[in-house]
Write a structure and sequence with these properties.
- Helices cover about 50% and strands about 15% of the residues.
- With about 280 residues, the protein is α/β, with parallel strands linked by helices.
- Helix 2 (about 25-35) packs parallel to helix 3.
- The chain is built from twelve helices and eight strands.
- It has helices at about 5-10, 25-35, 50-65, 80-85, 100-110, 135-145, 155-160, 160-165, 175-180, 195-210, 220-230, 240-275; strands at about 15-20, 40-45, 70, 90-95, 145-150, 170-175, 215, 235-240.
- The protein has an eight-stranded parallel β-barrel with strand order 1-2-3-4-5-6-7-8, surrounded by eight helices.
- The chain is globular and about 60 Å long.
- The termini are far apart.
């Protein structure tokens, strides 16, 4: 199973692992993103327009492209953890944690006994790992799946070292927008306050000191490169709801600019003919 978890393998090698964020539903959408060269695709059921059924379809589509499907659930609830992992996700990202106890609760929900309390019985997750049997999945899942916590609250930042020490937590993932809001420095016009930058650096240090990986959500390739150079390991480069409108607006602006330029030249030519020039 571990060989099939492309994100886990990427995190174990040197250098960053880049992924993309899916917020719109649809397996074709998932395949289009997965075929773009990323190690992983985050299927967002917290803020995205993706329900339980769409999550299952997207997980299967991403896996079919040889890419790791990671699901962000809406809250640190055991049943949400179970539904995401039972769909075949290679890992989960969980928002809005506050304490090490929250992290311990998450690990318990994500692991089969005796480590945790995850129930066993879904017929679906084996399909994300090749030809694994249900028994092989049961025996290997605890080591082969990734448990990722978002550090995005004031309390989680204060407790980041304690959270990083929790066995079974694999990645500390920075949610910069909520983190900025929660420490009193929201990101406005794309600008990050120096105290927010220091908070991000603190999370990276905690991950490295406790031999965990550090991840972060970015909104552009340039920003992603910056955090890769700083030493982050798991980096989201772009979301579909950022890339799609941006490309459409850019293409339309180019088309309108070209049309206006042609119209101006045509008008200029007409004036020249009328004036005899």
């Amino acid at each position: 199973m571990q060989a099939a978890n492309h994100l886990q393998k990427a995190l174990r090698r040197s250098g960053p692992s880049f992924g993309a964020w899916q917020m719109l539903p649809g397996s074709n959408q998932s395949r289009a993103i997965a075929r773009s060269g990323f190690d992983w695709v985050l299927i967002d059921t917290e803020h995205g327009n993706i329900d339980d059924a769409a999550m299952h379809e997207s997980v299967a589509a991403v896996t079919g492209c040889g890419v790791s499907p990671i699901v962000r659930i809406a809250a640190n609830e055991g049943w949400m953890v179970k539904r995401a992992l039972d769909s075949g996700a290679h890992g989960i990202i969980v928002p809005l944690l506050y304490t090490a106890a929250d992290a311990q609760k998450l690990v318990s929900s994500a692991k089969f006994p005796p480590t945790g309390v995850r129930g066993f019985g879904s017929p679906f997750p084996m399909g994300s790992f090749g030809n694994e049997t249900k028994e092989e999945y049961l025996l290997q899942a605890n080591d082969a799946l990734l448990t990722i916590v978002q550090i995005e609250t004031k309390e989680a930042l204060a407790n980041v070292d304690a959270i990083a020490r929790v066995p079974g937590i694999d990645v500390l993932f920075v949610g910069p927008f909520d983190l900025g809001n929660n420490i009193g420095h929201p990101i406005l016009d794309g600008k990050m306050h120096e105290e927010l930058n220091e908070a991000v650096a603190r999370i990276l240090r905690a991950a490295n000191e406790h031999e965990k990986k550090a991840g972060i959500y970015c909104t552009s390739g340039e920003q992603a490169r910056t955090y890769a150079d700083q030493g982050f390991h798991m980096i989201s480069v772009v979301s579909d709801m950022t890339a799609l409108p941006a490309y459409l607006e850019s293409a339309l602006a180019t088309a309108k600019g070209g049309y206006a330029h042609s119209a101006w030249n045509m008008a200029k030519g007409g004036v020249s003919k009328i004036s005899g020039r």
